[in-house]
Amino acid sequence: MYSQELDLELQLIQDTEIRDFTKMILVNIVHPLFYRKPASSTGKYHPESSLGDGGLLRHTKMVVAIANIICNSNMFMDTRISWPVIFSACILHDAWKYDQDGQYHSTKLHATKAVDSINAFVEHENVFVVKPDWYFDILNCIFTHNGFHVSSESMPIERMNINQRIVHIADMISSRRYIEFDLEEYKKSFAITPSLPAAPKQKPDKELPKGFDGDMVL
């Protein structure tokens, strides 16, 4: 299911291939509950603005907004950064918190489930002839977005690239209970970052993220 609620966020992805891929995932395999459920099923781990009906969607927008603020700060002019990868991962990072009809509590290992589901779809539909580097980078950013808060979905800090770290920081800030999100003000101030110089292709970890038992998640 796809909701136009994320059209603004998709506009930030200036690489059309990555934008189209991200939208394809939203359209084809993201459960409708993603747009309706709270970011925290217990209410303990996110601010009020991310709770209640549509709270997870607002949280997702907030994560993207924070990543965009970091991008606009121009304090990270590191050529290893891929903002299209970061924005795509921010949009998709929590899309598997709820993926079953009637599900009340969120799935703890939702990053693992996201990587599993996306890669299964890509394999089944033969989306790529050869999987591009950015694809693996998006999966790794999704897998580690919780940082060390979920030990089975983390990896040693020295293995996390700068894209993964920015996604985690944006998600961590947005989950602080004392930071609220005003959706209307966000829409008024929304701005797409001017095109940045293309970064040289980095070499992300082409192994898919490993699960807590040391085996491939997929």
Structure notes:
With 218 residues, the protein is mostly helical. It has one domain (16-189): Hypothetical protein af1432 (Orthogonal Bundle), CATH 1.10.3210. 43% of the residues lie in helices and 0% in strands. The protein has eight helices and no strands. Helix 5 (110-125) runs antiparallel to helix 6 (133-143) and helix 6 (133-143) runs parallel beside helix 7 (162-174). The radius of gyration is 16 Å and the shape is globular. The model is unreliable at 212-218 (pLDDT under 50).
- Helix run count: 8
What is the CATH topology assignment? Hypothetical protein af1432
Output the helix-strand order: HHHHHHHH
CATH architecture: Orthogonal Bundle
Number of strands: 0
> According to CATH, what is the class?
Mainly Alpha
Arithmetic mean of pLDDT? 80
Beta-strand content: under 5%
Overall number of structural domains: 1
Radius of gyration: 16 Å
Distance between the termini: 23 Å
